[in-house]
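USER: Fancy drafting a protein?

ASSISTANT:
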Amino acid sequence: MIVNPNFRELHAAEQPDLLRPLVMPALAAVQRALRSRGQVLSPTLTLKRCGRSLSPVPELLRSSATPQSPKPPRRWTLPLNPNPTQVTDELVDVLLTPLLSPGAADVVFDTLSYSAGPLPEQLLQDDRLSDTPVWVCYGLKDPWTSAQRVEALLSFPPVERVVPLDGVGHCPHDEAPERVNPLIIDFMRRVAEKKGELAGTAASGADQQAS
């Protein structure tokens, strides 16, 4: 089950063939800079966007941190979560606390600077998935994910369903759990069904060979 696939536009395979020799060295330099120097910016950017501070905050940044507010500002998640009724204090805390945890900046900037490994389309061409059902759901209001590209995943044999979620943004499992959770349950039932089909096919083949 794929929830909001990440197509990673900075990936080497995403760059035009003719421009790749020019684009990739510059892109690689930016990514190296992010990995080596970007970590110190992460708490500052997070605090600026959230308008509050959480402990522990590095001493270097403590002077720029605002006093902790009784309720975190909900505008922080609104660009990615278009449904304001789902932007609860709990959700903001769940998103914010890990971002200010020790080592979080390393993970964030390593992710941003990662341009290797398979893309979703490349993964779905793996022969090992030939008998594996794949379902995809995504938020139609996600500003970072192309609906056209997600729908195109249906062209790959393992993909059985692509489910667009209207009014949902970048984090469907957070914004619309009442819609995503039933999909996951149905998907697990489909996996069990597929497993039974494959077992039946294997048993039938064995009986034919025995006869």
